Amino acid sequence: MTATTELPGQPHIHYSVDQLHVEGLPLSPLACEHGTPLFVYSKAAMLSALDAYHRGFAGRQAQICYAMKANSSLAILQVFAEAGCGFDIVSGGELARVLAAGGDPAKVIFSGVGKTRHEMKQALQVGIACFNVESEAELDVLSEVAKGMGKVAPVSLRVNPNVDPKTHPYISTGLKGNKFGIAHEDTLRAYRHAASLPGLKVVGIDCHIGSQITETTPYLDAMDRVLDLVADIEAAGIPIHHIDFGGGLGINYNGDTPPQADALWAQLLAKLDTRGYGQRQLMIEPGRSLVGNAGVCLTEVLYLKPGEQKNFCIVDAAMNDLPRPAMYQAFHQIVPVKPSAGQDAVYDVVGPVCESGDWIGHDRQLQVKAGDVLAVLSAGAYCMSMASNYNTRGRAAEVLVDGTQAHLIRQRESAFDTFALEQLV
Ligand SMILES: *Cc1c(COP(=O)(O)O)cnc(C)c1O
User: Are 394 and 418 in contact, with CB atoms under 8 Å apart?
Assistant: First the structure.
């Protein structure tokens, strides 16, 4: 038996023998074979994250709709579709991905403040489960579009419970100043309006208060607020078939200790039971918590650039591959794939993009030399799905590991791919 060292909060990613592994595969050979930057995902880590939700909902009527904007690569969607998940989509493009990955449109819910008529038609055509409507104006347009097609659109209203999820302002969505959802005090009026429209059928209610939430209290508070509304809406004669509590559960990036999904839901279900809603059809929309800690991004050290104030470790991944640090000052752990005989120092780990905002980690103690491969951890969510071609950098390749099998699930984009749709005049 060889000793393995698990990384905290990163199940299925561990040091064994001389290097970092994802499940049964050492990462150096993967970096050699496919090049860097390279995203590597663990299928087992995704399924075990999903399992925690399944354990939490045992004996209940609950549908898990993976919020695919976290990572929308087709093979990732396929893993969740095969495990019985539905999908929470935010665009017609995401719907096309669900269909291409073999997902069931009858388990799709469509969120977002700015659905176009064209996207509504697309979704009505394939028969999605529910539109999560975010404004009264959207209700009118959706009814008109559905009527024009001779269809009735199933709707739920996204309500804004006005609770503070205590997370980064850019990923906090359930407060009054946010663009999302319908204000608590306008909800009953909006439901009456929805129920009066010929092209709509009210089926549910939903909320989503933010992302990377690491405490239980905001969820409990939001649930109370939503259940108060359910009682009012049903008292007005409008039945609410399902209750959707959104996503948002955080992961461990830097010693964060979010509740496990099953522990969180034990508390939430106890509240639902107490208030008499325990046997309702439930829905949730987790994204980050299903994939975030299932992925790493491998990147090669290009140059060390010692300086008077800062030492820079320049790597071949950049803000176009890993946008979270530049966008939200987010922290990702950065670890060596193998021990190195390099220079032990404190570095700013930065990419090649021509922006000072192009950094991956500040003030990291690392022993590195040019040519080493580093792993940026917790890179499964909101990395590849937010990647761009800025600086005409082709997007990275992706590998899905299943035991000792590596599947290339996305080829590296070439420069030609990045301008293939352009034309000279
Ligand atoms: C982004 C989003 C989610 C998923 O959020 P996570 O923090 O990734 O779990 C769920 N529902 C809606 C409406 C969203 O916009």
Answer: yes
| Domain limits for position 217 | 44-291
Cβ atoms within 10 A of the Cβ of 87, count? 29
Number of domains in the chain: 2
Phi/psi at 330 (5° precision):
-75, 150
| DSSP code at position 86 | E
User: Cα separation of 418 and 413, whole Å?
Assistant: 7
CA distance 90 to 173: 15
DSSP state of 412: P
Q: Are 77 and 222 found together in one domain?
A: yes
Res 24 pLDDT > 60? yes
Return the CA Rg of the chain. Answer: 23
Q: Do 228 and 277 share a domain, yes or no?
A: yes
- The answer to the question of residue 258 being in a domain is yes
Q: Is the CB of 209 under 6 A from ligand 1?
A: no
Q: Is the CB of 49 under 6 A from ligand 1?
A: no
pTM for the structure as a whole: 0.96
Structure confidence at residue 7 (pLDDT): 84
pLDDT at site 171? 64
Of the listed 130, 297, 354, 383, which one is catalytic? 354
pLDDT at res. 180 = 83
Residue 362 phi/psi, 5-degree rounding, is -100, 145
Helices (H) and strands (E) in the chain — how many of each? 12, 22
Strands (E) in 207-294, as ranges, are 242-244, 281-284
Instruction: Determine the residue of 285, 290, 327 to mutate for testing ligand 1's pocket, defined as the one with the most ligand atoms within 8 A of the Cβ atom.
Output: 285
Q: What is the pLDDT of residues 216-239, one digit of tens each?
A: 999 999 999 999 999 999 999 999
| Position 362 pLDDT exceeds 90 | yes
3-state secondary structure of 346: strand
